[in-house]
Each structure stands twice: as C-alpha cells, then as structure tokens.
Amino acid sequence: MSKIENIVQTLEEKIDKIIVQFGQLKEENDALKKEIETLKSQSKDQLQQLEDNQAEFDSLKIASSMLGSNEDKRASKLKINALIKEINDCIASLSD
C-alpha cells in the first residue's frame, strides 16, 4: 500500500505543479493579448498619422510647384490642365 500511496502523492504533486504552471501561462497569455491590442492600436494610430502626413506632403508639393518651383512646374501644369478638362467636361454635361 505504501508504494501506491507514494505514487498517488507523486501524481498529486505533479498535478499541483501543472495547475500552478497553467495559471502562470494563462496570466502570461492574457498579458500578451493586452500587449498585442496595445500594439495594434499604436500601429493603427501611426498608420493614420502616416496617411495624414502623406496627404499634407502632397498638398505642400502641389503648393510648392504652383509657387514656381522649376522641378515640379511641368507636373503642376499637367495637373491644372487635367482639372480644366474635368471642369470643361462637367460644363458640357450640364449644357446637354
């Protein structure tokens, strides 16, 4: 009987260790999930900031080209011509 009692006691100790380890892993998992959510939120905020900065950069680039920058003068002329064509098409559509 003593041998069986030792085996049962050993099993109980191992089960207790497994339960403690499971609890620790669960806590760690929860902490990692929270960290993932935080990082996702930060990533989303940074992506939005990047998009805002890109839009602002594009606006500044167009404004700079309209001020007479030689580099983008041709690009701004093409953009203005495209806008004029769109306006003319709209006027023509309204006239019909």
Write a short abstract of this structure.
The protein has 96 residues and is an all-alpha fold. Helix content is 92%, strand content 0%.
Mind explaining what this structure looks like?
The protein is mainly α and 96 residues long. The chain has one domain. Helix content is 92%, strand content 0%. It has helices at residues 2-66, 73-95. The longest helix has 65 residues, at 2-66.
Please give the largest β-sheet: none
Structural class: mainly alpha
Question: Over all CA atoms, what is the radius of gyration?
Answer: 34 Å
Order of H and E elements: HH
What is the terminal-to-terminal distance? 104 Å
How many individual helices? Answer: 2
Overall mean pLDDT stands at: 88
Helical residue percent? over 70%
Low-confidence sequence ranges = none
Annotation, overall tally of beta strands: 0
* Strand proportion: under 5%
How would you sum up the global shape?
Answer: rod-shaped
Number of domains: 1
Secondary structure: elements and pairs:
Blueprint: H1 2-66, H2 73-95
Tags for this entry?
single chain, 96 residues, mainly alpha, 2 helices, 0% strand
